[in-house]
Amino acid sequence: MDCKTATLVYETGNPLENIRKIFPEAWQFLTDQSAAFVAGKDDTFDAEIKKSIGKTPFGFRITHRDDTEQLTKDISELLGDITSRLLLEQHFSQVVGRPLYFSTICCSSHLTADRELTLDEVLPIQRAAVKLQ
């Protein structure tokens, strides 16, 4: 997150509310992704990844985005900043009533999981995503 945006988010007021106002499309995207993860909603890219890597001991859902869209860049900024990522994970976990962990992966994909993933767990997902995109 650039310094100007970070100042707007963190300097005064409620950082989550500031994120929601500055990044409304990203906020809606994370709202939708959280609900879809909990509901087990189908996604073609996600289904192909899961078919490729097989059963995992953790829950996850991955969606692919166009890397030229502003939304993709906003999600990368929000999840690349540890403070905003932790705030968003905490908020959306409370909204859906279970732990959620957000990441970016592949070239322009979004990953929601039910726990932090290890390198050994995420590397097969990354490899499958790169192959499919």
How would you briefly describe this protein structure?
With 133 residues, the protein is mainly α. The chain is 62% helix and 11% strand.
Overview of this protein structure:
The two termini are 26 Å apart. 62% of the residues lie in helices and 11% in strands. The model has no long low-confidence stretch (mean pLDDT 94). It is built from 7 helices and 3 strands; from the N terminus they run ααααβααββα. Helix 4 crosses helix 7. The chain is mostly helical and 133 residues long. It has a 3-stranded antiparallel β-sheet.
Keywords:
62% helix; three-stranded antiparallel sheet; 133 residues; mainly alpha; globular; 3 strands
Could you give a short account of the major beta sheet? 3 strands, antiparallel
Helix content: 55-70%
Widest β-sheet, arrangement of strands? 1-3-2
- Number of helical segments with 4 or more residues: 7
Shape descriptor reads globular
Structural class: mainly alpha
Q: List segments where confidence is low: pLDDT < 50 over at least 5 consecutive residues.
A: none
Average the pLDDT over all residues and give the rounded result. Answer: 94
The percentage of residues in β strands lies in 5-15%
In N-to-C order, the SSE pattern is: HHHHEHHEEH
Produce the secondary structure layout:
Layout: H1 3-10, H2 15-22, H3 24-39, H4 44-53, E1 60-64, H5 70-80, H6 82-96, E2 101-105, E3 109-113, H7 119-132
Antiparallel strand pairs: 1-3, 2-3
Helix pairs in contact: 1-2, 2-3, 3-6, 4-7
